[in-house]
């Protein structure tokens, strides 16, 4: 452990895997801001300013799924999306390390 070059790589990978586990709240999708009419009679949105509204758009094989996001949930979704990007970046780093480790012929994991 730690003596060889690949030993160091394994350590690095372990750290990245730990960081990956920290992204447990990850959410795939993107937040879309829009505005809509609420449908209430006499509401200002009937004629004037519509209500701002946020939803999460998740792309899939059969088109996009729309998830309604309340103002209270918005921050959590935002953090989740950031966590998702971090997770991908970490996976990319782990993949590059694994290429080195496999090429070094000393993968013990
Ligand atoms: Zn309204």
What does this entry look like structurally?
This protein is of the alpha+beta class and 109 residues long. 47% of the residues lie in helices and 22% in strands. It is built from 2 helices and 3 strands, in the order H-E-E-E-H. A 3-stranded antiparallel beta sheet has the order 1-2-3, covered by helices on one side. Strand 2 (51-60) and strand 3 (63-69) form a beta hairpin. The protein is rod-shaped, with a radius of gyration of 22 Å. It starts with a helix and ends in a 5-residue tail after the last helix. The relative contact order is 0.22. Zinc ion (ZN) binds next to loops.
Structure characteristics:
109 residues; alpha+beta; 3-stranded antiparallel beta sheet; 2 helices; 3 strands; rod-shaped; binds zinc ion
Task: Lay out the secondary structure.
Elements (H helix, E strand, L loop, with lengths): L4 H17 L8 E7 L14 E10 L2 E7 L1 H34 L5
Antiparallel strand pairs: 1-2, 2-3
Helix pairs in contact: 1-2
Bound molecules: zinc ion.
Brief digest:
The chain is an alpha+beta fold and 109 residues long.
Q: SSE order in H/E notation?
A: HEEEH
Assign a percent range to the helix content: 40-55%
How many strand units?
Answer: 3
Q: What is the approximate shape? A: rod-shaped
Which hetero compounds are present in the coordinates?
zinc ion
The total of helices stands at 2
| SS content category | alpha+beta
Please tell me the total number of domains: 1
Round the mean pLDDT to the nearest integer and report it.
Answer: 91
**Low-pLDDT regions:** none
Largest sheet: 3 strands, antiparallel
Widest sheet: strand ordering: 1-2-3
Strand coverage percent: 15-25%
Radius of gyration of CA atoms, rounded to a whole number = 22 Å
Distance between the termini: 12 Å
């Amino acid at each position: 452990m730690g003596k060889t070059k690949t030993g160091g790589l394994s350590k690095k990978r372990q750290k990245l895997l730990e960081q990956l586990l920290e992204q447990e709240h990850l959410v795939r999708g993107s937040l879309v801001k829009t505005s809509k009419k609420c449908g209430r009679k006499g509401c200002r949105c009937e004629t004037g300013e519509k209500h701002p509204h946020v939803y999460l758009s998740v792309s899939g094989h059969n088109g996009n799924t729309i998830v309604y996001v309340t103002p209270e949930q918005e921050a959590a979704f935002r953090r989740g999306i950031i966590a998702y990007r971090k997770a991908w970046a970490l996976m990319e780093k782990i993949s590059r390390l694994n290429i080195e480790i496999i090429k070094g012929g000393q993968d013990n994991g």
